[in-house]
């Protein structure tokens, strides 16, 4: 689609990823309308309809979600399932009624089966059940892929679905109750350093691997997909590189200057054993490749957090 001069509504547009996507599309010449949860309750179809009537967008990018790390997913699995599913279901239906020209949906790497062969291919998405600690969230997001493909088949809607890997970068939530692994580690190590603590306890064994993508790279991927991709198949968005959680902890401890010990609480869950995406489809279909080196992005994120203490 033509980005310049289009009216593009971004749900979750005031959040971590949404703010970056809004900036990316604005730089490309779009008239971007970022919408946050305080403005419209997307669990309610009447409010989703009112939002679309107010904005009258040419395209919608759906990024609004209830998200968190393993602890948050374990604490509120029902909420993570219901709210993520219902927001997408109601919004997509409202977009169908409104005849929105294009809809871009953010899925999640958590939708993949626990035992997916590495690297994760989009073709393996339905080969098993997601890892237990985040399965309700992953299943909710899978549901939106089914809806997108069903609505494309029956109604001819142009709905595109991306599967972003774990994101990180400045402006991410550093709340220890809900944050993801990188901001949680950064905060824990900095607090331990400042308090002169001799050790930091972290969840799990440290052996699982994860793949991370800088939020600005992710925003660029969403912009490219909105402009250049109109297909029905889901597309992975990631860096294609994995790192063990233990090695990640060592990198962050070194960056912040924490010299104590790291103690692994093996009574706590590890989550999915490995995560690394096959990112070839994104490169082939809309030319996306990650550009920000992980070490550079990690330093930037640490510096951003420290500057706000």
Fold and architecture overview:
It is built from ten helices and eleven strands. It is an alpha/beta fold and 309 residues long. The protein has a domain of 210 residues: NAD(P)-binding Rossmann-like Domain (Rossmann fold), CATH 3.40.50.720. The strands form three sheets. A six-stranded parallel β-sheet has the order 2-1-3-4-5-9, with helices on both faces. Strand 4, helix 5 and strand 5 form a beta-alpha-beta unit.
End-to-end gap: 42 Å
Q: Can you give the helix content as a percent range?
A: 40-55%
Order of strands in the sheet with the most strands?
Answer: 2-1-3-4-5-9
Average pLDDT, rounded to a whole number, is 96
**What is the gyration radius calculated from CA atoms?**
19 Å
Q: Which term fits the overall shape?
A: globular
CATH superfamily caption of the domain at 7-169 and 212-240 and 274-291:
NAD(P)-binding Rossmann-like Domain
Largest sheet: 6 strands, parallel
Give the name of the CATH architecture of the domain at 7-169 and 212-240 and 274-291.
3-Layer(aba) Sandwich
Q: What string gives the helices and strands in order?
A: EHEHEHHEHEEHEEHEEHEHH
By DSSP (H or I, 4+ residues per run), the number of helices equals 10
Structural class: alpha/beta
Number of strands: 11
| Unreliable segments of 5+ consecutive residues | none
CATH top-level class of the domain at 7-169 and 212-240 and 274-291: Alpha Beta
Share in β-strands: 15-25%
CATH fold-level label of the domain at 7-169 and 212-240 and 274-291: Rossmann fold
């Amino acid at each position: 689609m033509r980005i310049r001069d289009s009216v593009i509504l971004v749900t979750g547009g005031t959040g971590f990823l949404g703010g970056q996507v809004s900036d990316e599309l604005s730089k490309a010449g779009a008239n971007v309308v970022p919408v946050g949860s305080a403005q419209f309750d997307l669990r309610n179809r009447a409010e989703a309809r009112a939002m679309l009537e107010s904005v009258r967008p040419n395209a919608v990018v759906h990024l609004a979600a209830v998200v968190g790390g393993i602890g948050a997913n374990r604490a509120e699995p029902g909420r993570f399932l219901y709210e993520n599913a219902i927001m997408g279901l109601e919004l997509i239906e409202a977009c169908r009624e409104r005849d929105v020209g294009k809809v871009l949906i953010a899925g999640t790497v958590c939708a993949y089966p626990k035992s997916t062969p590495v690297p994760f291919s989009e073709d393996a998405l339905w080969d098993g059940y997601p890892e237990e600690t985040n399965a309700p969230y992953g299943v909710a997001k899978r549901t939106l892929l089914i809806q997108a493909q069903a609505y494309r088949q029956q109604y001819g809607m142009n709905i595109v679905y991306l599967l972003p890997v774990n994101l990180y970068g400045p402006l991410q939530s550093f709340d220890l109750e809900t944050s993801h692994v990188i901001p949680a580690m950064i905060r824990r190590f900095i607090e331990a350093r400042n308090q002169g603590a001799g050790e930091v306890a972290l969840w799990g064994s440290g052996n699982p691997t994860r793949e991370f993508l800088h939020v600005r790279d992710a925003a660029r991927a969403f912009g490219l997909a909105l402009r250049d991709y109109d297909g029905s198949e889901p597309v992975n968005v990631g860096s294609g590189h994995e790192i063990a959680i233990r090695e990640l902890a060592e990198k962050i401890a070194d960056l912040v200057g924490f010299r104590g010990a790291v103690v692994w609480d093996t009574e706590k869950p590890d989550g999915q054993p490995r995560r690394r995406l096959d990112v070839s489809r994104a490169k082939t279909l809309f030319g996306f490749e990650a550009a920000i080196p992980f070490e550079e992005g990690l330093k930037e994120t640490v510096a951003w957090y420290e500057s706000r203490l």
